Amino acid sequence: MGTLVCFHAHPDDEAIATGGTMARAAKEGHTVVLVVATGGEHGEVPDDLAPGESLAERRRRETEASCAELGVAHVEWLGYRDSGMTGWEQNGHDGAFVGAAVDEAAGRLAAILARHKTDVLTVYDWHGNYGHPDHIMVHRVGHRAAELAGVAHVYEATMNRDDMRRMRDQAYAAGLIDPDNDWDPDGPADDGNPMGLLESELTHRIDVADFIDVKRRAIQSHRSQITDTGWFAKMPEEAFRSAFGAEWYRKAGDPGPLRDGWFF
Question: What is the rounded distance in angstroms from the CA atom of residue 207 to the CA atom of residue 228?
């Protein structure tokens, strides 16, 4: 059996981006470790925070609930603050992940990778899937940490832009999307680039259809983030299965082509 470490920017990213992969690995008997770079301090603030309760504290508990669903053995927190979206004032706050020195942050992560005897590490693609500053840092820091810790197998979790386009067209045809909604996966995301990667740039399609219900429950665990996760949780069952029955990766150093595969 091996050890899979999934490195994510904020609470809830683990469930949305790699939840099926994590659940599958855990079910097969592999050790699954989640590393979260920030506390998600600048996410949506719910109305029901208790007196003295911070959003980061709430999101930490939600992450623990998500990980219980996914079968995660260990949760590690890298200790940085959420940087907010591109151009936000929070980008410049003390402790913001986007302002960290890559080698310093990579050293923290490398120590975790070494302690858990990591076989496989997941990060994000080169622009963090949609340009969020913290997601881009996950890519940079994760790759550097893998070098420092000697982790040979690094997979970039991403979105298949061609698949997103197909799903959008199917949703329009089925009446699941308002005809006036002009959302376009080829349009500019937070950094001005289109979301995810083209299918031709991917190397691995991971089948997680057997874990779709687990993934959905993990997403629902992040109840404070209604804007981010609510629409996922409310999708009709078949639409959710179609959208999330596979997770997409680009393996570093692998020229492709795309194939159905697995980490172990």
Answer: 24
Tokens, residue 256? 């492709």
Please say if the pLDDT value at position 229 is more than 60: no
Residue 171 maps to a domain: no
Q: Which of 221, 207, 211 is nearest to 23 (CA)?
A: 211
Return the H-helix or E-strand segment holding 247.
strand 246-251
For residue 152, give every residue at least 6 positions away whose Cβ sits within 8 Å of its Cβ, in sequence order, or none: 146
- Give the torsion sign (CA, 46, 61, 126, 264): negative
Q: Tell whether 252 is covered by a domain.
A: yes
Range of the domain at 211: 3-161+199-260
Residue 147 within any structural domain of the chain: yes
Query: 192-208: per-residue pLDDT in tens?
Result: 899 999 999 999 999 99
Per-residue model confidence (pLDDT) at position 94 = 87
Number of domains within the chain: 1
Task: Break the chain down into helix, strand, coil percent, rounded to 5.
Answer: 45, 20, 40
Pair of tokens at residue 134: 């913290």
Q: Which two tokens stand for residue 35?
A: 């590393």
CATH number, domain with residue 62: 3.40.50.10320
**Is the CB of residue 169 less than 8 Å from the CB of residue 229?**
no
Q: pTM to 2 decimals?
A: 0.93
Cα separation, 21 vs 103, whole angstroms: 28
Phi-psi region of 150 (alpha: psi -120 to 50; beta: other; left: phi over 0): left
208 within some domain: yes
